[in-house]
Automatic annotation (TrEMBL):
This is Winged helix-turn-helix domain-containing protein. Residues 1-11 have a biased composition (Polar residues). It holds the Pfam family HTH_39. Residues 36-103 form the Winged helix-turn-helix domain. It comes from Accumulibacter regalis. Residues 1-30 are annotated as: Disordered. InterPro entries: HTH_proteobacteria (IPR055245).
Length: 124
């Protein structure tokens, strides 16, 4: 695992998008989103439906699907559409994902009604 010069291995392993039920205040407050999760959320909000390849190639987010998973676990309503084949930069790509915001954006339908243990795992 790579670490920055002034960072320990345990600090670099901490993902700012980790599932943390305390990141959302009790009630209906939106959770705090930082790091790559905040970048992915901003891209989806600004660009509308966006290909996973765009986030990887143009925005330097190597694991966009993982960040979308983290955002869903925090209650964001992100819709995924899988395309069997799509052309990206002159090549045909298979099984490409397009991400967009659902309505309502937060909380995802059923998120607050789910038991806390399922919300924490993102299984609402």
């Amino acid at each position: 695992m790579k670490t920055l010069p002034n960072q320990t291995a345990s600090e670099s392993a901490v993902d700012k998008c980790d599932h943390n039920p305390s990141s959302a205040a009790p009630g209906t407050s939106r959770p705090i989103v930082t790091g790559q999760c905040a970048q992915v959320l901003g891209i989806i909000r600004e660009q509308g439906p966006v290909l996973s390849f765009v986030m990887t190639a143009d925005c330097a987010i190597p694991e966009a699907a993982a960040r979308v998973h983290n955002l869903r676990a925090k209650g964001f309503n992100i819709v995924t559409q899988i395309h069997s084949a799509i052309e990206f930069r002159g090549s045909i790509r298979r099984n490409a994902a397009t991400y967009s915001m659902g309505v309502p954006e937060w909380p995802a339908p059923g998120f607050l009604a789910a038991p806390a243990s399922e919300r924490q795992r993102g299984l609402f």
